[in-house]
Amino acid sequence: MLVTARPLRVAVAAAFALVAVAGCSSDDEAPDAGRIEVTTMRGAFLQAADVGPTWSAPETSADPQQMVSFCGGASTPPALPPGADPVSSSLADEGETGAQTLEQLALVYPDQKAAQAGQALLRAVADGCPPTVSVPATATTGKSEPAYAETVDVQELDEGGWSGFVLIRHKKYEAAHPGTADTAVAVLTTRNVVLVDTYAIYQLNKSVTAPGFEADWRKLVGSVVQRVG
């Protein structure tokens, strides 16, 4: 069982928003590796019991046609690259001082070439993200959010024969309303599949990155790709 950093139990402030990680593919994969099917990816996704005893699936499943945002601030999520059969799964763990979320999305293409093209479209979006954004406080009907600054760092990523990139986002609220949101969106490709695996942890009354954040997202991503083989 994977057990990630655990915030104390309670509902999370609505101000915190969710983000994603992505990867790319390799040209020198074995041609006889075999096509990966939708059922294989669905079976490879982590379930709540695999992650920790306080995790659960939300009542409403994530829309497989909707991706998470790559860039900081109020940026629009990238469009789903064409030509794939998407399959997704969502998990969450809410606590008194924060929460964690895991969004798993697989884009299953007809072949490796199509998967590489899909990954390239997502990489172009990631490369276009500004490294830092500052957002003023906002207030709308039923929701308000303090001012914050958010950084985005794009890094190369290779994991278990899958290759691509990861976006690391760090969101820090103004001192008058302390809180952070750390998000890793990993985009990885092998054979005919692009995996977009997003782990986020939100903390109230904190000003630094959550302990164990990097180890946790790497563990979560690695567990999925190992299941596919």
Task: Give a quick account of the main beta sheet: strands, pairing sense, barrel closure.
Answer: 8 strands, mixed
In whole angstroms, how far apart are the ends? 19 Å
The total count of strands amounts to 10
The residue-averaged pLDDT reads 86
**Low-confidence runs:** 8-32
State the secondary-structure class. Answer: alpha+beta
Assigned CATH class? Alpha Beta
CATH architecture: 3-Layer(aba) Sandwich
Q: Could you name the CATH homologous superfamily? A: PknH-like extracellular domain
- Tell me the count of domains: 1
Q: Report the CATH topology name.
A: Protein Transport Mog1p, Chain A
Radius of gyration: 17 Å
Strand content: 35-45%
Number of continuous helical runs: 4
Topology pattern, helix = H, strand = E: EHHEEHEEEEEEEH
Shape: globular
Q: State the helical fraction.
A: 10-25%
In terms of quaternary structure, the protein is: single chain
Keywords: Signal
Protein name: PknH-like extracellular domain-containing protein
